[in-house]
């Protein structure tokens, strides 16, 4: 969680509240009838108390959520809090809430996030809903108000939004007033009336005579904070202050003389030191104050009613009222300024909220500690798909620190690596130089290793080799070793030999297994989808899948996606096309749930294209090709794939365009370097330029086995064998196809040959092979053609299958279990407990159930299940 859970807990007040019938009636009506309710008044006017009390009076058919804003909140953080505040009501999310948090900062993300949030709110089984944003004056991110403006327009009509603030929010209030959708409660509405002042005085056991109440009211003008202070002082027999009118201007003096001055010195010191904390709990207060009896102190503070609210937590946790905190911080700065940096560092040590933790360290001037904290949490945040939040944390540092700090530059490099950005090499090189200037050679070497790894991914193999050669005598470091093996694996995949790729993949898997770190598994996950190069690869990739899933557990969803993609690739290489296709469809659905993280999409994208070719499904190919993200940086990729697929699906115009445009591209160091010759050869054969086609394909097969990627060898050999037979060269045809037959029988790898297409494989099997070709070889080619035919789903088969399928067959066994518990009225939390799952996993199952059954709410899912059971 990227924020303190107390931000979404409703504060409550155990004593000192009285009924305020008129205010409560007006507020209740507003919460149930208006679109927006504003409580705008200075500090101390009881905005929080009024709202927290009123929420408890809402009918059971009403849902509500509470968010306390603070100065660290930007839009993604506030949205995270909102998602958590709604969690108790089990919204039927169609995508992961965390993915919405990431998406909201992307271009065009506002509309999609508001649409998803609105759909979830509308599908919740409540007559009415209320969402409260308390202390919204604290935020400074203007995007928050733009988001709220759009949400107010788009959210379902049965939801009311409440804002408590010291200042008017930047929202279209005039329009809402004109529509009579706005209820406003200002200073006059929140002030106590004379009768309320009398009841409050009576409840406090003080003089409630008319004269005394009139004096009290004149002095405070009904200001709730002032009333509370005066009555507290009177209850402790403190000599009354001068009869000047009490206002916020006099508050600090009043607190100093009549509240703080009458405390014991230990309690004064305790409160002053603990004022740096956002919330007060015994353990954290003991650490910051140095006072072992912190729990007793908190009990006394609560008994005294010292401007605190109590938060719903496993242990007593108090939140200081802003007025009281401001006063205490003023005392701290005046009396103990030398202690502030130490107190802030102590507060940071146990702070679970990374945003607050970073704020503590920056306010303490602990720049190095803040930078180290960011480097420490960056890998885990990236593995969880929280790169946007990490970027926003970096922006809290001064601009010059962002530009020159080795650790911050290194963190930017990690973000670039996770986003597959070409900037990674420059950033890591700059970070390495900065670390070296600081004398931190361990991190300098690690940054250089990441520069090399990023370079290897971008085909700068020579530079990567130079870096690792220079690091030869560096002390052992796990991340450096991982980057080295990942780079060498990638280099061997591109340039060969196959045995080197196997060796480096094995070593990489061993290092990752030893680490057990989901963050490292995510960062160095080996891409294997279309690059099986030795018979040992399936076993190695299965180790990759098992190790990654074990490291991820029920979390680190991006890593789970990568592992499932590798698993689908295993099945594809084994020739289990239908099973691989089903798993890929599931993977695509999971990616949609996760917000389609860029670092995870390449697997499903490559698999979708390969399966579209094998299944002869041009519509699926066009759908996969709509994802333009990978082509922006790799134009050769688009041309090569279009040409390859076009040659299989008889789109020769696409092949011609690819051949012409690839001629102008520098293909060196690319997976696709051999493909222009293959495509040119196949195009020449199609256009009747037989001799040219044969010459080009003969050149291809000279090296295609040793550099086989993406079915290159199979496509070249099947094309050449068919062409040689066509010109009356059966011996040359057999010489062309024999290595492929032997390789597939030895390795069992079917993906490459199946990507040649059922038409080509059918022709190949039907060729008049003579008796000199062994029977087992002819049988093998016939097996290829049969498998290719089986991979072609006809429209008739699909319609028939859909007509007889039981709807529950759309769901997995686990999803059916979840659906049964939903029908029993169980919450996500209870379902997670019953099935030993994480709540995140349950949410994903619920989303799948709704999607597959074409339903919009948990209630509809429960009704569907009961109807199905009755049938």
Give start-end ranges of low-pLDDT stretches: 239-244, 795-805
Residue fraction in strands: under 5%
Structural class by secondary-structure content: mainly alpha
Largest sheet: 5 strands, parallel
Q: Span between N and C termini?
A: 43 Å
Globally, the shape reads elongated
What does this structure look like?
The longest helix is centred in the middle third of the chain and has 18 residues, at 478-495. This protein has 871 residues and is mainly alpha-helical. The protein contains 47 helices and eight strands. The strands form two sheets. The chain has a five-stranded parallel sheet, sandwiched between helices. It has a three-stranded antiparallel sheet with strand order 6-8-7. Helices cover 63% and strands 5% of the residues.
Outline the secondary-structure elements.
Elements: H1 21-33, E1 36-40, H2 47-55, E2 62-68, H3 75-86, H4 97-103, H5 109-122, E3 128-134, H6 142-154, E4 159-165, H7 173-178, E5 182-185, H8 187-190, H9 194-203, H10 210-220, H11 224-235, H12 251-259, H13 265-274, E6 280-281, H14 282-289, H15 294-304, E7 308-311, E8 317-320, H16 322-335, H17 340-349, H18 354-363, H19 367-383, H20 387-394, H21 399-404, H22 406-418, H23 424-438, H24 441-457, H25 461-470, H26 478-495, H27 498-515, H28 518-523, H29 537-552, H30 557-573, H31 577-593, H32 598-614, H33 618-625, H34 635-648, H35 652-662, H36 675-686, H37 690-701, H38 712-726, H39 730-747, H40 751-754, H41 758-766, H42 775-790, H43 795-804, H44 813-823, H45 828-835, H46 839-852, H47 858-870
Helix pairs in contact: 3-4, 5-6, 9-10, 10-11, 11-12, 14-15, 14-17, 17-18, 18-19, 19-20, 19-22, 20-22, 22-23, 23-24, 24-25, 24-26, 25-26, 26-27, 27-29, 29-30, 30-31, 30-32, 31-32, 32-33, 34-35, 34-36, 35-36, 36-37, 36-38, 37-38, 38-39, 38-41, 41-42, 44-46, 44-47, 45-46
């Amino acid at each position: 969680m990227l924020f303190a859970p107390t931000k979404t807990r409703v504060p409550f007040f155990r004593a000192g509240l009285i009924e305020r019938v008129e205010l409560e009636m007006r507020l209740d009506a507003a919460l149930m009838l208006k679109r927006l309710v504003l409580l705008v008044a200075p500090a101390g006017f009881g905005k929080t108390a009024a709202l927290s009390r009123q929420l408890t009076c809402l009918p059971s058919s009403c849902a509500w959520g509470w968010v306390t804003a603070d100065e660290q909140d930007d839009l993604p953080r506030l949205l995270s809090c909102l998602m958590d505040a709604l969690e108790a009501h089990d919204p039927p999310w169609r995508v992961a809430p965390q993915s919405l948090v990431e998406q909201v900062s992307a271009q065009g993300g506002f509309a999609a996030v508001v649409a998803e949030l609105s759909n979830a709110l509308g599908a919740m089984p409540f007559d009415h809903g209320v969402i409260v944003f308390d202390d919204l004056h604290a935020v400074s991110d203007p995007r928050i108000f733009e988001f709220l403006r759009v949400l107010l327009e788009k959210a379902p009509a049965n939801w009311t939004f409440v804002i408590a603030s010291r200042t008017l929010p930047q929202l279209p209030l005039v329009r809402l007033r004109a529509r009579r959708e706005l209820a406003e409660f200002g200073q006059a509405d929140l002030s106590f009336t004379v009768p309320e002042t009398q009841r409050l005085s009576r409840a406090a056991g003080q003089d409630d005579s008319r004269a005394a109440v009139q004096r009290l009211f004149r002095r405070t003008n009904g200001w709730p904070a002032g009333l509370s202070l005066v009555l507290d002082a009177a209850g402790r027999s403190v000599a009354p202050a001068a009869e000047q009118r009490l206002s916020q201007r006099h508050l600090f003096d009043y607190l100093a003389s009549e509240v703080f001055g009458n405390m014991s010195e230990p309690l004064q010191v305790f409160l002053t030191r603990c004022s740096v904390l956002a919330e007060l709990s015994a353990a954290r207060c003991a650490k910051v104050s140095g006072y072992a009896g912190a729990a007793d102190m908190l009990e006394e503070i609560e008994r005294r009613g010292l401007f605190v609210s109590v938060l719903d937590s496993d242990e007593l946790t108090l939140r200081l009222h802003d007025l009281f905190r401001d006063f205490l911080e003023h005392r701290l700065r005046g009396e103990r300024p030398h202690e502030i940096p130490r107190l802030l560092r102590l507060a940071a040590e146990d702070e679970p909220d990374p945003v607050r933790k970073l704020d503590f360290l920056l306010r303490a001037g602990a720049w190095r500690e803040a930078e180290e904290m960011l480097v420490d949490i960056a890998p885990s945040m990236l593995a969880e798909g929280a790169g946007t939040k990490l970027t926003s944390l970096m922006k809290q540092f001064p601009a010059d620190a962002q530009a020159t700090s080795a650790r911050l530059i290194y963190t930017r490099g990690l973000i670039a690596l996770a986003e597959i950005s070409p900037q990674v090499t420059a950033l890591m090189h700059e970070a390495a130089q900065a670390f070296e200037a600081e004398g931190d050679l361990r991190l300098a070497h690690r940054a250089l290793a990441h520069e090399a790894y990023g370079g290897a991914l971008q085909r700068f193999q020579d530079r990567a080799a130079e870096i690792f050669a220079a690091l030869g005598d560096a002390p052992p470091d796990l991340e450096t070793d991982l980057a080295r093996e990942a780079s060498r694996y990638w280099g061997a995949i591109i340039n060969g030999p196959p045995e080197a790729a196997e060796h480096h993949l094995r070593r990489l898997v061993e290092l990752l297994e030893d680490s057990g770190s989901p963050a490292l598994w995510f960062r160095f996950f080996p891409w294997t989808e279309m690059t099986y190069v030795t018979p040992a690869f399936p076993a190695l990739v299965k180790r990759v899948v098992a190790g990654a899933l074990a490291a991820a557990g029920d979390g680190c969803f991006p890593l789970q996606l990568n592992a499932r993609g590798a698993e689908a690739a295993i099945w594809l290489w084994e020739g289990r096309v239908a099973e691989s296709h089903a798993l890929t469809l599931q993977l695509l659905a999971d990616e949609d749930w996760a917000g389609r993280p860029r670092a995870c999409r390449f697997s499903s994208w490559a698999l979708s294209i390969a399966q579209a070719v094998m299944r002869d499904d041009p519509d699926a190919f066009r759908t996969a090709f709509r994802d333009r993200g990978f082509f922006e940086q790799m134009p050769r990729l688009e041309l090569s794939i279009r040409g390859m697929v076009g040659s299989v699906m008889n789109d020769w115009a696409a092949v011609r365009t690819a051949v012409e445009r690839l001629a102008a591209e520098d293909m060196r160091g690319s997976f696709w370097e051999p493909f222009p010759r293959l495509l040119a050869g196949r195009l020449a054969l199609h256009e009747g330029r037989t001799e040219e086609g044969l010459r080009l394909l003969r050149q291809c097969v000279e090296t295609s086995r040793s550099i086989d990627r993406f079915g290159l060898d199979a496509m070249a050999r099947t094309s050449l064998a068919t062409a040689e037979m066509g010109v009356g060269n059966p011996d040359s045809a057999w010489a062309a196809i024999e290595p492929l037959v032997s390789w597939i029988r030895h390795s069992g790898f079917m993906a490459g040959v199946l990507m040649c297409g059922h038409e080509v494989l059918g022709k190949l099997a039907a060729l008049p092979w003579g008796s000199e070709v062994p029977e087992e070889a002819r049988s093998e080619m016939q097996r290829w053609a049969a498998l290719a035919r089986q991979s072609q789903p006809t429209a008739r088969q699909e319609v028939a299958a859909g007509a007889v399928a039981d709807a529950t067959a759309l769901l997995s066994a686990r999803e059916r279990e979840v659906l049964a518990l939903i029908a029993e009225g169980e919450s996500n939390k209870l379902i997670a407990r019953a099935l030993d799952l994480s709540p995140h996993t349950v949410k994903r199952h619920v989303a799948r159930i709704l999607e597959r059954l074409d339903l919009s709410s948990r209630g509809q899912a429960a009704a569907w299940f009961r109807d199905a059971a009755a049938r």
